[in-house]
Amino acid sequence: MTFNEGIRIDTSTTSSGGGMGGRGLAVGGGVGGLVVVLIALFFGIDPGSVTGGQTAQQPGAATPGFDVSQCKTGKDANDNVNCRVIATGNSVDQVWSQLLKGYSRPKLHLFTESTNTACGAATSDVGPFYCPADRTVYIDTSFYQVLQDRFGSSGGPLAQEYVIAHEYGHHVQNLLGDISKAQKGVQGATGGSVRTELQADCYAGVWAHHASTTNAPGSDTPFLKPLSDKDIADALSAAQSVGDDRIQKAATGRVNKESWTHGSAAQRQHWFTVGYQTGDARKCDTYSATDLDNG
């Protein structure tokens, strides 16, 4: 999915920097036990297995961040992955501003290796995440290479943009008061966490449906050019690669539905497709769905 080169990128809600200062919080706990939900892990595994259940430690002084002033136009978004993340956030914001009355933009923070958030300390190991407490999407773009090398996703632009749109989908859930549902009811394959993540996938599809027809602010040009079949294949590849069943099978050789947090590869593809084909956020009611495989 290619950005129209003439569009302007708005970096006013974006910050950048890496490293942590102050006392860290356990990535797998703390903040009233809600960090697992707040971080919205893409890997579909217990973050404690990444951190060993230990408190995130200070890796040293904060490192300089990416200079976001480099991101000015759609051409920059096509050429630079950090600019692409910011421009994608701009596009998602514009789509949801049209679809959701009272929509307010989240902040976006680009980091390297580790960062502090209102939800606690986190490292790149947990993947992209959204923190409702500070209404910020956190991205370390090195995740995209991990997505390809470790999880077998394609490396196309829409595979990357899908990740951003998914995390912004959690912001929409937060605005609607739905994100807390991830902790309610049963857990596992039909639980609140899985339903919350699948809805964010569906919201990402809704964005993709409207992305090439929603004009940039003050412009008669959309942020993005029309999607190709390859673009959709890239997004579906990313959704498939982070399915709970696929990751569990690769890591342990077996699938345990009782520990699912994000849904199967097929479910993640299905709900993205629902959003993309309909463009209707009302079709993304995963909480009421009796069959998460078919909606």
Automatic annotation (TrEMBL):
TM segment ranges: 25-45
An example Gene Ontology CC term for this record: membrane
SUPFAM superfamilies associated with the record: Metalloproteases ('zincins'), catalytic domain
Region Disordered, residue ranges: 1-20
Membrane topology value: Single-pass membrane protein
Record's keyword terms, sorted: Membrane, Transmembrane, Transmembrane helix
Protein name: Uncharacterized protein
InterPro entries per the UniProt record, alphabetical: Uncharacterised_pept_Zn_put
Protein localization: Membrane
